[in-house]
Amino acid sequence: MEHDLADLGERMPAPLPFACTDEAGLWGALYVVEGSRLGGVMLARLVGSDLPHRYLAAAHGPGQWRAIREAIDAAGRDASAEWYDALLSGAAATFDLYAQAARLGEPALAPV
After folding, report:
1. Full-model pTM
2. Distance between CA atoms of 34 and 61, rounded to whole angstroms?
């Protein structure tokens, strides 16, 4: 992302705080982050060839997405309902972080 932004004459923004630290929540975050790469590859196809798109085009190698899902499944094997609740909370917190980052990039609208 940093290289794409630099190509556009922009700086990397400051990191947003992410308070999720428990193991199950981090597995949920990993699922969202790595899953978003699948969508990114699709979006990269829509970006003009004259624009940077390395970040969006960062695809998984053969079998990597399956390995990630299998690792999450293995981590949750025999886990409690609370573990799964934490996993879902971590995933939701990650989606919220993406939404927050997107709002920071929105142009300010002039009052009507």
Report:
1. 0.83
2. 12
HEC readout, 62-110: CCHHHHHHHHHHHHHCCCCHHHHHHHHHHHHHHHHHHHHHHHHCCCCCC
Q: In this structure, are residues 75 and 23 in contact, taking their beta carbons and an 8 Å threshold?
A: yes
CA nearest neighbour of 40 among 59, 21, 17: 59
pLDDT tens digits, 9-60: 888 888 999 988 899 999 999 999 999 999 888 999 998 889 888 888 888 9
How many Å apart are CA 86 and CA 80, to the nearest integer?
A: 10
> What is the DSSP secondary structure assignment for residue 24, as one 8-state letter?
H
CB–CB of 44/56 below 8 Å? yes
Residue written as token pair 């390995």: 67
Distance CA 66, CA 74 (A): 12
Element (H, E) at 42: helix 23-44
